[in-house]
């Protein structure tokens, strides 16, 4: 039996925890598909996530679900800032469950990277790239400081009152996610979005209690984790996604992530996903498994957590190697799962699983016969 298709257990503060049927995780991926612009997920999200649950993933993450309207990357993002959105996620979660997968939601706030055009072919063809113009309905954004990212419109520096309100927004979103039936909530602390903007010295130039020292720059993230952990049921695992490294001298580096991961674990985070970058031009490595060393470093710091690697892990035997070498406990699959929603089922077959152990929907049994 391959390690990739061995069940894995995620610890929780109270109760038995969550067991995933295997160690394949669908990476969160924005769909920019909310055509009614109200953040309410619909048939596309059901079809997209449902197909990948049927395709065998152990844990299926939604796209970055905005915790406030202001925190949306684009106006076509799905959200979890109101109850109508929560109710719309519920049947999607039910379907994911019906296929034997666990359902995760990525809670997200884009901060100074909010209010951008949806990254879809038509918008790109029309040169609608970057900040949405005011005439197209762009909105004001918030960040730790007025640092411009990627040439986007600068955010407003958050007041202490706005920081406190924002922490509450994360907790409220977690409550809605719980009501919708999600099993795992993941705090999006990666890719240059709001939490990462606080962590990184590249974007956080504050001089108050939320900026400067490591302790101050991590304060917002600690408060968010604490508030979400209190709102999110103790029997459900809390996850976080980090940009493990800005790949820039003077930025947020892997040593910072390792140090903060240990703190996050103490605060009740039991699953870590290690991506990288998102602030400024990309200076990091590339190639198959290029972010695996980041996961391996965090795995050493929090050996009892469920740590996943992500980034160009496309090949089943490569994924298996990541696990066998102890670099991570699972793999998050992004683009390879867009190409093939049945990535896990195919991978299990390629790794030699017996027919009974291949995670496929009953309706598809003859594909594996
Ligand atoms: C992404 N990615 C991403 N990451 C994230 O944390 N939240 C998100 O909503 C999105 N959205 C998104 C949309 C699309 C279309 C792609 C391709 C990617 C990043 C993604 O989760 C993953 O980290 C990268 O794609 C790298 O993994 P792969 O694709 O090499 O397996």
Automatic annotation (TrEMBL):
Its cofactor is FMN. It holds the Pfam family Oxidored_FMN. This is NADPH dehydrogenase NamA. InterPro entries: Aldolase_TIM, OxRdtase_FMN_N, YqjM-like. One of its GO terms (molecular function) is NADP binding. The lineage of its organism: Bacteria, Bacillati, Actinomycetota, Actinomycetes, Micrococcales. It comes from the Bacteria. Keywords: Flavoprotein, FMN, NADP, Oxidoreductase. Gene3D superfamilies: Aldolase class I (3.20.20.70). Residues 3-350 form the NADH:flavin oxidoreductase/NADH oxidase N-terminal domain. It comes from Paeniglutamicibacter gangotriensis Lz1y.
């Amino acid at each position: 039996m391959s390690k990739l298709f061995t069940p894995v257990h995620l610890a929780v503060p109270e109760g038995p925890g969550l067991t995933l049927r295997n160690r394949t995780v669908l990476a969160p991926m924005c769909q920019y598909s909310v055509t009614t612009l109200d953040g309410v997920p619909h048939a596309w999200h059901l079809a997209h996530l449902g197909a990948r649950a049927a395709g065998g993933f152990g844990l299926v993450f939604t796209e970055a679900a905005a915790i406030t309207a202001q925190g949306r990357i684009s106006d076509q993002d799905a959200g979890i800032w109101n109850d109508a959105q929560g109710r719309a996620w519920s049947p999607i979660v039910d379907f994911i469950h019906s296929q034997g997968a666990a359902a995760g939601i990525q809670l997200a706030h884009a901060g100074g990277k909010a209010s951008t055009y949806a990254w879809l072919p038509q918008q790109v063809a029309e040169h609608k790239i970057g900040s949405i113009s005011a005439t197209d309905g762009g909105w004001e954004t918030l960040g730790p400081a007025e640092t411009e990212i990627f040439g986007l419109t600068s955010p407003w520096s958050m007041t202490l009152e706005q920081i406190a309100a924002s922490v509450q927004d994360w907790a409220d979103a977690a409550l809605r996610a719980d009501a919708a039936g999600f099993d795992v909530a993941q705090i999006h602390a990666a890719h240059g979005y709001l939490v990462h903007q606080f962590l990184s010295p590249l974007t956080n130039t504050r001089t108050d209690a939320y900026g400067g020292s490591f302790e101050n720059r991590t304060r917002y993230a600690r408060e968010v984790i604490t508030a979400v952990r209190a709102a999110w049921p103790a029997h459900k695992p809390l996850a976080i996604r980090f940009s493990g490294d800005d790949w820039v001298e003077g930025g947020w580096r892997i040593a910072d992530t390792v140090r903060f991961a240990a703190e996050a674990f103490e605060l009740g985070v039991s699953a870590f996903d290690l991506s990288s970058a998102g602030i400024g031009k990309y200076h990091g490595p590339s190639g198959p498994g290029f972010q695996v060393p980041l996961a391996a470093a965090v795995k050493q710091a929090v050996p009892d957590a469920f740590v996943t690697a992500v980034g160009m892990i496309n090949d089943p035997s490569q994924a298996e190697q990541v696990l066998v070498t102890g670099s991570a406990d699972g793999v998050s699959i992004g683009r390879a799962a867009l190409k093939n929603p049945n990535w896990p089922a195919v991978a299990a077959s390629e790794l030699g699983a017996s027919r009974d152990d291949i995670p496929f929907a009953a309706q598809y049994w003859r594909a594996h016969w």
